């Protein structure tokens, strides 16, 4: 582990927190529009599909800004980690990016296509589902660990392809579908909102089951994670996390039952953040689990400071722009309305 003092010690911690925030923002913000795409084939009509797409039209491309910040931040602040993680997870990264490309092209072309609209519908739904799936696979491949020798990736191209990673992939698809459904509850009116509320009530227990499976699988399969969660005093500090998850899930269910529009969305965001916190607790301070920490993989302090100065100025601009866009396009989308 890195031994140092002053700025050299806490700079990697600052950058790891910035990356964590960027990933969390991406998962929440791009999660609901990927989730909407996952639910796309279940829409009752083309009119409902138009309504679903209009609910995310002002936001979806801006949401992916956080993916760029996460990947770029990893490269500039932790180049050693980037040089190891990317070769280890190269294939799922490429599959995810290709899926996002298909989804983005379909989003732009679908509303102007007439004879080929059904093909763009398939590309949009398929791209959204595969992007979500491979994001989960990336998460699983990262959590289970990467083989490192002499500060370089020493495994094979398919080391990530394990049952655990595949289960994580399906879990993220279910999770994104859930947040997409509560987004539609909040942002649409009429039949689309009614059907989305019913789907959210079906998806909530599915997501809880996946969370329970992964929460049990990780400590059983990876002793380092079991030690983090089940040794004192961590056990007492972390015990509220699963309890809060259950309480919040029950609250989301009740809010859906009582017909609330906004509260289920923010409740599901809370569930995502609790799960994300659990993953962070299981991994930190390792940026290349289970061997290299944030200090061991960090760039030179001068490089970190240089990039941090730019980030400090740009991050409020990005946050302000996002807040403005979400405020400007607040309210519900009715059938027949759109932003195209």
TrEMBL record:
Top-rank lineage group of the source organism: Bacteria
UniProt membrane topology term: Multi-pass membrane protein
Entry-linked InterPro entries: Cyt-d_oxidase_su2 (IPR003317)
EC number(s) per entry: 1.10.3.-
Places the protein is found: Cell membrane
GO function terms (MF aspect): oxidoreductase activity
Keywords annotated in UniProt: Cell membrane, Membrane, Oxidoreductase, Transmembrane, Transmembrane helix
Transmembrane segments: 12-44, 88-106, 118-143, 163-186, 202-222, 234-253, 265-287, 307-329
Similarity remark: Belongs to the cytochrome ubiquinol oxidase subunit 2 family.
Protein name: Cytochrome d ubiquinol oxidase subunit II
Naturally occurring in which organism (per UniProt): Ancylobacter vacuolatus
